[in-house]
Amino acid sequence: MRIDPQNLGLPLPDTAIGARPRAASGGASAAAVPGTDPARLLTDATRVTQLAGEASRYPEIRQERVDGLQRVLQSGSYHPEPAAIASALLADLVGQ
Asked: In whole angstroms, what is the distance from residue 1 CA to residue 47 CA?
């Protein structure tokens, strides 16, 4: 995470845009790739792994059910109960 010192009223560090970075001790550069934040990359990779795990819990699309529902919708014979819709929405909202 990067904190913008301008929002905090603090002076900009030496790594501000246009400033020349100081050489790290031993002659090596401070960052392997300029403009990247290893902590941010790690956080993003962790989030991608977490989302992939969540996605794998959902069933694959059952095309025969989708096709059947499309036929019913196109014929105009689909009339769900409003109470059932409301119950399903509330259950989903509270995570049941």
From this structure: 14
**Does residue 5 have a pLDDT over 60?**
no
Residue at 21: amino acid letter: P
pLDDT tens, position by position, 40-68: 777 888 888 888 888 888 778 888 899 99
Question: Residue 11 corresponds to which amino acid?
Answer: P
37 close to 43: Cβ distance less than 8 angstroms:
no
Handedness of CA 3, 17, 20, 33 (dihedral sign): positive
Q: Rounded CA gap, 62 and 64, in Å? A: 6
CB count in 10 Å sphere of residue 74? 9
Spatial distance between the Cα atoms of 10 and 31, rounded to a whole number of angstroms: 23
Backbone torsions φ then ψ of 50, nearest 5 degrees: -65, -45
